[in-house]
Amino acid sequence: MDFSFLFCVMGFTIAAYSVIANDSAQTLGTFISSNKKTSWWKSWIYMTSIMILTLGYAWWTGDVAYHRLDSIPLPTTFQWYHGLAPFLLLVLTRYGIPVSTTLLTLSVFSSSLVLEKIILKSAVGYALAAIVAYALWTILSKFLDEKQRVNKKHKRFWKISQWFATGFLWHQWLSHDIANVAVYLPRGADLSFAVFLGFMIILITGLAHLFYTKGGKIQDIVSSKSGTRFTRSATIIDFVYALVLWFFKEYNNFPMSTTWVFVGLLCGRELAVYRCFGTKKGIKEVFPMLLSDFLKMMVGLALSVALVLIIIYIT
User: Fold this and answer.
1) In the chain, how many domains are there?
2) pTM above 0.90, yes or no
């Protein structure tokens, strides 16, 4: 039996499911929270269409990973630890822990130098997202109270805006994090149409399950934040997050943790919201919640570093 092929197929399949399931909180979480009355299959068809166009264009132009894997070559043979990383991600997803799929999955394929660069860029992303969110929502609080209901005549505008904003975010996220799955596939033009088609079928199926289950356990991290079930708040969050991802995509092609960016964005926003509208009791409640999210994020980092050290030690 060719164990290399077995580890590759196992790692790819689990990674495809886990990456979508775990990262649903950061890409589609606010959309799911604020569209619970919408039939799941309508949301699925919309997001599937964007995914097909985004990845289909990337494959057609020569690199389905949008050059995020230029510094991470395809292994000559796949080992057991290439399948272990997405398996750990799957387990953590079942417990609702928003770990970084980029750090956890790509760590077993990367050198220590590449991993250091991924961590550094992710940390900068976390800090920048937190600062931008805090500043923006502090300014917004002067003109907009997100706790107030949207005027009925404006509901349609915000509804349409949210679908566009989330679609833009979904496109930006795919161009970043699809590399976490494509790392198991041939690079660039070596990826055949047959393999690409199988790749898409698995992703589309996983996306259907995601919408059918309303985001799963990982959705709790979004639902716990103030106002995320409201269409207006969800629209603003998604659009700002998409712009931050777009900035880092244009900055360079190096991989980064979009999970860290998302947690940083929610952190900055939540502090601004509670500072402007919350009571003293509210401030005392928000810090433990944000600390919990940060510590969960650190779990993924610790596991990633541990995996790299184990691999270095045994190989």
Assistant:
1) 1
2) no
